[in-house]
Amino acid sequence: xxxxxxxxxxxxxxxxxxxxxxxxxxxxxxxxxxxxxxxxxxxxxxxxxxxxxxxxxxxxxxxxxxxxxxxxxxxxxxxxxxxxxxxxxxxxxxxxxxxxxxxxxxxxxxxxxxxxxxxxxxxxxxxxxxxxxxxxxxxxxxxxxxxxxxxxxxxxxxxxxxxxxxxxxxxxxxxxxxxxxxxxxxxxxxxxxxxxxxxxxxxxxxxxxxxxxxxxxxxxxxxxxxxxxxxxxxxxxxxxxxxxxxxxxxxxxxxxxxxxxxxxxxxxxxxxxxxxxxxxxxxxxxxxxxxxxxxxxxxxxxxxxxxxxxxxxxxxxxxxxxxxxxxxxxxxxxxxxxxxxxxxxxxxxxxxxxxxxxxxxxxxxxxxxxxxxxxxxx
Length: 378
What we know:
Elements: E1 2-8, E2 12-21, E3 24-34, H1 39-47, E4 52-57, E5 64-70, H2 75-85, E6 97-106, E7 113-121, H3 122-134, E8 141-143, H4 145-153, H5 167-179, H6 194-246, H7 256-277, H8 279-287, E9 294-301, E10 306-312, H9 315-326, E11 330-339, E12 345-352, E13 367-375
Helix pairs in contact: 4-5
């Protein structure tokens, strides 16, 4: 990072270039431009650098001075009271000038502070800044090297004396001013705004980049969601096709995972059913009961109930079949009898099935075994 200290003199423009290092600003070179028709163009050529910070030094003889007394030494408080303190001491109004102040010291007698007020006509300063702005120069601070030299090397009585700074003294004063400006007349509407404009521009760029990142992130997220949805639909379609191949008897398949879990649960329940009631043993009991003129048509069996439906020639045949069932099974009851048009008797008998287990751990759904034209005599 570089700094350019522009010093205006009666005959020339002197530009001292400094390079910022760890220890501070180090002198690099001096450019001297004599006043002429191409001075501005040459100045632009030398300091046309966006990373360069400019400072402006005004001749001390174009500045105006007033010495006032204040009961405090805080510079900000003094500046805020200057419009009232300078009333009647300056030509024109305070608003027509730009002012700054320097606390010179404290009077031992009354304890009040001696303050040097430095001011310049605002319009005259605006004209000088406009000339510099044409070549892209906007000073961060407006000060006076000659004033610093007079106050530090001479005294306040030398304010209106003419001084000629040597190159060595000028460079030293420049380094001191860059570190801590003695005064800064770049105030109010003439204040330095380059950093503010640069910050606003960078902020707009950052907001634009942030908006683009949000848009790209949103677009990427939408795209990923679209891919995931397509993948889910593909997997769902694959699972439905696979389920239909395994269970071709089912016509309507909506949720293959749920339906497959239901199938597995049903198989487990059926397995528990057959493990708990020994259906073969119950069938063997039924096949061992012989009653003439009785035909079993349907058999329903669960863990705690067995329902037999059949056909008999007479009611007495049904009673005989019930009595024989009672000798083999428990809780045998005739639930329903009905005579058909051909004078046969349809009956429904319930009984408790034979169970080898002492207790039934799980009650499965009702299982139906159809025995078409199962003759107990055969």
